[in-house]
Amino acid sequence: MRPSRVITVDMNVDEDLARQEIAVKVGQGAKLSERSGSAPKRMSALRLLALILVYGTPAFWTIKTFKILDPDVWWHLATGRWILQHHALPATDPFSIYGSDKPWLVYSWGFDLIIQGLYSQFGLVGIVFYEVIVRVLVAVALFHFVSSLLPKFWHAVAITSVALYILSHVLTPRPGMITVLLGIVVLDRLLSFRKTGDTKKLWLLPPLFILWANWHIQFVYGLLILGVFAIEPFLNILFMKEPFVPNAISIKRIWPVLFLCAAATLINPYGPRIYSTVFLYMNQPKSFAAITELMAMSFRQPQHYAALLFALCAAMAIGWRREPRLLWPLLLGLAGVLAFRSVKEIWLLGVVSAGAIADGWTDSIPPAQRGFAWRERMLVTVGVVAMLAVGARYYDLANSWLEMQVAGNFPEVACQYIEKNHLQGPLYNDFNWGGFVIWRLPGTRVVMDGRTNVHGDERVGRSLAVWSGKSDWAEDPELKQANVILAKKTSVLASLLRLDARHKIVFEDQQAVIFQPK
Q1: pLDDT digit string, tens, across residues 419-461
Q2: Does residue 2 carry a pLDDT above 90?
Q3: What is the residue-wise DSSP string for 404-447?
Q4: Positive or negative: CA dihedral 381, 385, 386, 387
Q5: Are 124 and 406 in contact (CB under 8 A)?
Q6: Cross-sheet strand order for the sheet of 503-508
């Protein structure tokens, strides 16, 4: 009987030897590329145009269709305004009745300051500028990520375009946009290190996590991605017949970087307490069941079907690889769990699927790829800026138009009535309009708004039950104590209050109706 082959892995393998082996393979790939006649050439005008369209189209579409519908952007603006006025972070919640004596961790204070600064300088157009800029950066980062794995230009353009379409509806002017951008950058850096063994790729990560931890609570997703890269070498050694060459390098370098990045997240105004908000959000089943963006994919949007098809293609690409490894199955599994739990995380499924498809499409040793020359970078930059400038001019992006739009979607006129007539609280409002009231009526405390970390899962669930007219709606203590009830005209509670002899209508327009007790 022929003896089975036993593979041993020396965890103390010399790093220089491993890097040399990788460099030899990459060099062989470059020689093969040169022999086949694919020597680097100046990028054609058609390819430059394609890059301009890939980078600029999502932002151009934002300018064309922009609507301020996100109810949370308002309390972010109000928070930034409060911080600038007081030159400090609030210790307790200054905006709601319930949170007035309770500590509040302003985990997105960096975003709040930036968005308020843009608003101060440019008005509502500043919010559009923020989304446009981040959309361009996301497109650039995503194409770089895909093309580094698949150096076939048109294939990379196609994969990037599909991924951008999948995540198009989750990119709204919120702090979460930075999570999409930095998530792509982290994946790109880690895969580049894994391919080349160049540890310089990793040292940008801790500073990124400092920014991330002061911008958005989902910096934990970056740590999860790092964790996958950290445990994958061990799993390869345990389960794969031929472990990947840089296993020892990965184990020696990834784990220290993981610890450094975790430590970097503690550089924030709240230190380790920031993680208490993470655990709070993880245990809010009522919010996840009732808030649209937190629900699972409904498959009422074409992006949902595209994400599912893309994930299936990624699974097939993983299976077709000549050198199967566990990294992509682990990343795809993590992205799938998060995306199918909450549609808000569909971006991660799109990005990971794009990477898996790109990595599975090419040979195990990709040909050498020439980076962009400075002239090409400048041409693409000028092209994107010109494209967006034309869009802003053609679609008449102006504050007056945005203000009309806001008045059509939020209770602007009703707030003017409250302000003009000096109506005194307590104010009773719904979940979606609370953030706008916080911003529009400074000093007026709301009963509810989109900050579920402030109000808690039980209060959010009870508020939603009252506004949907559950049988005991009239017994809600906060509704009973309210002196002003600001209701959406089409809400169930507004219909019930019209029939309630204890309340009278003092104001009504196309969006809102205001009730007061008789």
Answers
A1: 999 999 899 999 999 999 999 999 899 999 999 989 988 999 9
A2: no
A3: HHHHHHS-HHHHHHHHHTT--S-EE--TTTHHHHHHHSTTPPBS
A4: positive
A5: yes
A6: 427-428, 484-488, 512-517, 503-508
> For the purposes of burial, counting CB atoms within 10 Å of the CB of 211, is it exposed (0-12), middle (13-18) or buried (19 or more)?
middle
Q: Mapping DSSP to helix (H, G, I), strand (E, B) and coil, where does residue 24 land?
A: helix
Nearest alpha carbon to residue 432 among 252, 245, 293, 247: 293
The helix or strand, by DSSP H or E, that contains position 504, with its residue range, turns out to be: strand 503-508
Specify the residue for token string 């000028």: 382
Lowest mean pLDDT among 150-164, 309-323, 381-395, 396-410: 309-323
3-state secondary structure 289-343: HHCHHHCCCCCCCHHHHHHHHHHHHHHHHHHHCCCCCCHHHHHHHHHHHHHHHCH
Rounded Cα gap, residues 181 and 159, in angstroms:
17
Instruction: Note the pLDDT tens digit of each residue in 19-60.
Output: 444 444 444 444 434 343 444 456 788 999 999 999 999 999
Is residue 141 within 8 Å of 160, Cβ to Cβ? no
Distance separating alpha carbons of residues 342 and 294, to the nearest angstrom: 5
Question: Positive or negative CA dihedral for 59, 400, 513, 78?
Answer: positive
Q: Peptide bond preceding 426: is omega within 30 degrees of 0, i.e. cis?
A: yes
Question: Residue 283: is its pLDDT beyond 90?
Answer: no
Determine the pLDDT at residue 8: 37
- Strands 484-488 and 503-508, by their bridges, are unpaired
Distance in Å from the first CA to the final CA of the chain: 96
Element (H, E) at 481: helix 477-481
CA-based diameter of the chain, in Å? 96
| Nearest residue to 330 via CA among 217, 189, 233 | 233
| Residue 170, token pair as written in the block | 């989750």
